[in-house]
Amino acid sequence: xxxxxxxxxxxxxxxxxxxxxxxxxxxxxxxxxxxxxxxxxxxxxxxxxxxxxxxxxxxxxxxxxxxxxxxxxxxxxxxxxxxxxxxxxxxxxxxxxxxxxxxxxxxxxxxxxxxxxxxxxxxxxxxxxxxxxxxxxxxxxxxxxxxxxxxxxxxxxxxxxxxxxxxxxxxxxxxxxxxxxxxxxxxxxxxxxxxxxxxxxxxxxxxxxxxxxxxxxxxxxxxxxxxxxxxxxxxxxxxxxxxxxxxxxxxxxxxxxxxxxxxxxxxxx
Amino acid sequence: xxxxxxxxxxxxxxxxxxxxxxxxxxxxxxxxxxxxxxxxxxxxxxxxxxxxxxxxxxxxxxxxxxxxxxxxxxxxxxxxxxxxxxxxxxxxxxxxxxxxxxxxxxxxxxxxxxxxxxxxxxxxxxxxxxxxxxxxxxxxxxxxxxxxxxxxxxxxxxxxxxxxxxxxxxxxxxxxxxxxxxxxxxxxxxxxxxxxxxxxxxxxxxxxxxxxxxx
Lengths: 269, 215
Prior knowledge:
By secondary structure, chain A is mainly beta.
């Protein structure tokens, strides 16, 4: 009797597994950032790769000042095995037309090891002395920025720009004269490991203005000849990947882990 | 006549056991420790759609996407933005219906952004004498429910009696803004500029049905 029941249960399980009809749902998410109108400012946007939403972890640093700082933080969940993107970042500037010269942005990333969820939360201060060794898992991670060649090709068509404008007549199509920037950065990939909670590494991204080029930009709004309107899009962006090596993970540590990441943006000229 | 069919018979064979290394005549033979075989008989079809994480491929694909991003607008005016992968496993011809496909809607206002979803496919099937394959795309439009596509439409020939379908479908899903809104205004660039800032959502429901009659 038990065997018959077992077979019936088995057939029931398979019939649900291999149903003739199947449904799927696709969730489409899009967002439109709130207008970035603060002049002479820069902002760093951290986007969670899983649930990135408008206004999530967006912080604005108004009035660019030398060596000013902007801090953001985000929780991430553990990644075991394959390297995965945990969040992406984008630096936007609304600093207006820039004279020939260079702007420098420095991004620093402080990453803790993965702590067992049961012992979380703990204040992030770069130290982990209160956490037992067996409650931690170190992680490997890398930070990517887009390559220079890719940027150049990309920018030629659709990339970031800023412009002053000239208007032939009001309420008419206007033509803007663009100033093209070229992104220069010191590396396209940086990687490291957490080591007992110590801060890991920093990477620098340098922005240089390399020249001017004319650019036609469609405009259907009324602009006054003396308008100070200008527009900036991103000036640097990339992703942060992280994983936990299988070899660093043993069965006695099975559980949910969290890590704490602090991203610091510094600007200077 | 097509209808959703239930599974007729399932045969499950589970073979398990322990096998250890055997030493014989100076050689070791090592077998696996267990072997599990599952077999299904009857018609079935399964569909899965896997969204691509946001900006995981150099910002060229994935969700959510920033509709103010120049490259998103560039994609919306051209080939569409890759947002998901989809695949089907079936042993019978089948139809796919998007039962619900609402416009992309702002989270707090009534602002709706129409769009197209393009399902690219590569169908492989056996028509009774040889393996065949065909590629193409199905386009679905937001704001219209119960848009049905039949896999037979993409086959070169109607499967003849006695033949059978053992096929798979795999492909990409692309998002593309509708070029023209209901009021006739071109959406891309201009209408996006007028849309309020914030989050936009759409939940698309897809149903696959096995086709008993064409077996």
